[in-house]
Design a protein that fits this description.
The complex is a heterodimer of chains A (551) and B (158). Chain A contains 16 helices and no strands. By secondary structure, chain A is an all-alpha fold. Chain A has a single domain, classed as Up-down Bundle (Cytochrome C Oxidase, Chain A). In chain A, helix 1 runs antiparallel to helix 2 and helix 6 packs antiparallel against helix 11. The radius of gyration of chain A is 23 Å and the shape is globular. The N terminus of chain A is likely disordered. Chain B is an alpha+beta fold and 158 residues long. Chain B folds into two domains: 30 residues; 113 residues, Immunoglobulin-like (Sandwich). Chain B is built from one helix and ten strands; from the N terminus they run H-E-E-E-E-E-E-E-E-E-E. In chain B, 40% of the residues are buried. The mean pLDDT of chain B is 88. Classes of the chains: A mainly alpha (551), B alpha+beta (158). Bound molecules: protoporphyrin IX containing FE (HEM) and copper (II) ion (2 copies).
């Protein structure tokens, strides 16, 4: 049941909207990447930051720009293009909404960045109270979130228009997925919005004197875990829908793809306690309940893994591959649009295994807040997700700018991905190892007064600096390719690949489009997982905290 | 909704592994007692120095409890009190800690003692020190400019 797409090319007005997002995203990558390099150099102990710049200021820039700005802008830009391509061009109203969202986000980014640069918000990208940043920093972050809501609403408007014009039919798969991700995002950012608007902002303005630290952290992590799925789902959109077309195959199953996205929506939110396992003030039984819910995302993850390999194998066999693994050779390894995201997928196997470790009560106690965690999310976010985003850029940017990915750029893109892979193997590998020895994360170079254990950590930090340097070369390469595709590549037409389902596949059951049902279940799960612990927290609350500026 | 036979097998295998895995964690936590540190006691963070047991940081022998010693730590930016402590080998110790200002971590590198210290809350973890040696305590939650300088030491001796 391939949905018929009348619009093959993204309308040029929508393309501009997408590109605006990508300019900000790649600028964030450039600055954030440089900060990453500096961090690894400082941590090696062989280098000091010039001009009295603090390590933690640099780390705040890195976390905010790469964890929050690059991701949100890239995702919104990609989703605008995906919706416009598969559900039809934005109406003028939807497009205007998108632009308002973009500018609100950009304004927020500038506000937050200004405060960080003035050293008034060296609170890292998690801004845990009672560290107290300047109120403009919090207001800026609020604008980023609210802007992303407005952006998301534009996408929902266009999807709703398609549904109205096509009653009784399931929406185009890629658009459906974008909308699921937007809904996930809106539900989860309500937590951080509440934290900022009711606690941190009035507190930093001096309107209230104290905040409840545990409540603020719980609201943060109610947002913080789904945040990682908000990053991951756009990558899955490319894996499920774009890659099959790139390799000349078919989507394995439209229904199962939708089902797995719905399961991610349900199981990625009521689970924030797995980031708070070692915190006081939360009953261990509730922690365990949320650990169980956390592990349920393994089901859609396994479905995704299965669908990927099934797509690869059937595409290879359709091209005449023989034997158990003959299909591997039939994959287009010289096509950056495939190979770059594929390296990302491969990285997700160890990354996912690491995630299972982190979310287990007892094992978390070994790795919690060690540099192992940093190693973990440089595999998930900074490799699986980011390489997939790069892979998307290689066709999407020229598609939007009316240019072509040349052979030369394709080659450079392949080199970029391998450079990234090697750099990350060094950096993330040695972070994992160092973390198991107990080395803390978010820490500048320190000998800890000559402690023997700390001395054992230093060689790993030198390995991280080697990895960081290689990664920075990767950053330079991706920026070269981005600038080429945005401004200099030869004019032409680059395809926006959208996969189709096999002819003999069954119709997609409409229950998968029952938004009331799925959002309802999601809310019930959230209320189940959070209501009682929240009441406990408020009833047993100690006196709140005044603000501190310890940087 | 149609599901491929191999996918059914794959998912059933996955679900079975999941159940085994979660049961292991659950039994370990609630039957063997390996729960994460989750103490529910609160304290006024501005009166930590006047509140027992934090008015006397350090190691104290106790009687009639499930553990032999209590080891009390007070954290503040950017130091722990005490800055060094000696624990007899084989002692069963309840570590009790809190913070006077921002959030800190208390991680004894090379052991399973790893907990968050949050203003207003007491964090506890009970463990047995059964290996001799020097253990570095580090703060593993960002707390300000001196975060990486914040440490203490436990010496486990016969
Ligand atoms: C040149 C490439 C990169 C290098 C060398 C690098 C290096 C680092 C290092 C050394 C840290 C940890 C520092 C510490 O805990 O003290 C860090 C943290 C982090 N990195 Fe990267 N990174 C790179 C790219 C990325 C990318 C592409 C992303 C995301 C898209 C990313 C996201 C983060 C985040 C969110 C943190 C956590 C910040 C915090 O703990 O507050 N990094 N990075
Ligand atoms: Cu999580
Ligand atoms: Cu600290």
């Amino acid at each position: 049941m391939p949905s018929i797409n009348s619009t093959i090319k993204v309308d040029s007005r929508d393309a501009k909207l997408s590109m605006a997002h990508f300019y900000v995203a790649f600028a964030a990558l450039a600055i954030g990447g440089l900060m990453g390099l500096l961090q690894t150099l400082v941590r090696s102990g062989k280098f000091e930051l010039p001009g009295g710049i603090g390590y933690y200021q640099v780390l705040t820039v890195h976390g905010v720009l790469l964890g929050l700005v690059l991701t949100t802008f890239f995702i919104m830009g990609f989703q605008h293009a995906a919706v416009s391509r598969t559900a039809g061009t934005h109406s003028d109203k939807a497009r205007l909404t998108g632009w308002i969202g973009f500018w609100v986000m950009t304004l927020g980014t500038v506000m937050a960045a200004a405060m960080v640069l003035m050293n008034k918000a060296t609170v890292l990208y998690t801004f845990y109270a009672p560290l107290q940043a300047h109120w403009i920093f919090y207001l800026g972050l609020t604008f980023v979130v609210v802007g992303s809501w407005i952006d998301g609403i534009a996408q929902i408007m266009t999807y709703a228009k398609w549904k109205k014009n096509n009653p009784g039919k399931p929406g185009p798969l890629l658009s459906f997925m974008a909308v699921i991700n937007t809904v996930l995002w809106i539900i989860c950012t309500i937590g951080v919005a509440a934290e900022v608007l009711f606690q941190l902002l009035p507190w930093s303005l001096g309107l209230i004197d104290r905040v409840d630290v545990l409540v603020s952290r719980t609201l943060f992590w109610y947002f913080g875990h789904p945040l990682v799925y908000f990053w991951l789902l756009p990558a899955y959109m490319a894996w499920y829908v774009v890659i099959p077309k790139v390799i000349g195959g078919k989507i394995f199953s439209d229904s199962l793809a939708r089902l797995s996205f719905i399961l991610f929506l349900l199981f990625s939110i009521p689970v924030g306690f797995h980031h708070q396992l070692t915190e006081p003030g939360i009953d261990p039984a509730w922690k365990f309940i949320q650990v169980i819910l956390t592990f349920l995302v393994i089901i859609p993850s396994l479905m995704t893994a299965f669908a990927m390999f099934a797509t690869f194998e059937s595409a290879g066999r359709a091209k005449g591959a023989k034997g158990m693994f003959g299909w591997v050779k039939k994959l287009p390894w010289n096509d950056a649009r495939f190979t770059v995201p594929f390296i990302g997928m491969a990285a997700f196997i160890p990354a996912g295994a690491g995630g299972i470790i982190n979310a287990s009560n007892q094992m978390d106690q070994v790795v919690h807040n060690t540099i192992w965690i940093t190693g973990h999310f440089h595999l998930t976010l900074a490799t699986s997700v980011v390489l997939t985003f790069f892979g998307i850029s290689y066709w999407l940017i020229p598609h939007l700018t009316g240019r072509k990915l040349t052979k030369k750029m394709n080659k450079l893109a392949l080199i970029q991905a391998w450079v990234w892979f090697i750099g990350m193997a060094f950096m993330s590998g040695s972070m994992h190892a160092e973390g198991l020895l107990g080395a803390p994360r978010r820490s500048a170079f320190s000998t800890y007064m000559g402690a023997k254990q700390a001395a054992e950590w230093i060689p790993y930090q030198i390995a991280q600096a080697v990895g960081g340097t290689i990664l920075f070369i990767g950053i330079i390469l991706i920026l070269i390719i981005f600038i080429n595709l945005a401004f200099f590549a030869p004019k032409g037409e680059e395809e926006f690949p959208v996969g189709e389902q096999a002819e003999n596949a069954e119709a997609t059951p409409m229950v998968l489009e029952n938004w009331k049902l799925w959002i309802g279940i999601s809310i019930v799960l959230i209320l189940f997982a959070y209501t009682i612990p929240f009441i406990d927290m408020i009833q047993n609350a100690p006196i709140g905290s005044k603000g501190f500026k310890t940087w | 909704m149609h599901m491929h036979k191999l996918e059914k097998i794959w998912l059933i295998f996955g679900l079975a592994a999941l159940i085994v895995f979660l049961s292991t964690i659950g039994v370990s936590a609630f039957y063997l007692g390996n729960k994460p540190p989750s103490c529910l006691t609160t304290v006024d963070p501005e009166k930590v120095d006047q509140t027992a047991p934090f008015n006397k940081p350090g190691l104290h022998k106790v009687e009639g409890k499930d553990w032999d010693y209590e080891l009390v730590f007070v954290a503040q930016a950017f130091a722990y009190t005490p800055t060094q402590v000696t624990v007899p080998l084989g002692a069963k110790v309840k570590v009790i800690a809190t913070t006077k200002d921002v959030v800190h971590g208390l991680e004894v590198a090379g052991t399973n003692i790893n907990m968050m210290l949050e203003p207003g809350y007491v964090s506890e973890y009970t463990t047995t020190f059964d290996k001799e040696g020097e253990y570095l305590i580090v703060c593993n939650e960002y707390c300000g400019t001196g975060h990486h300088l914040m440490s203490s030491k436990i010496e486990v001796k016969k």
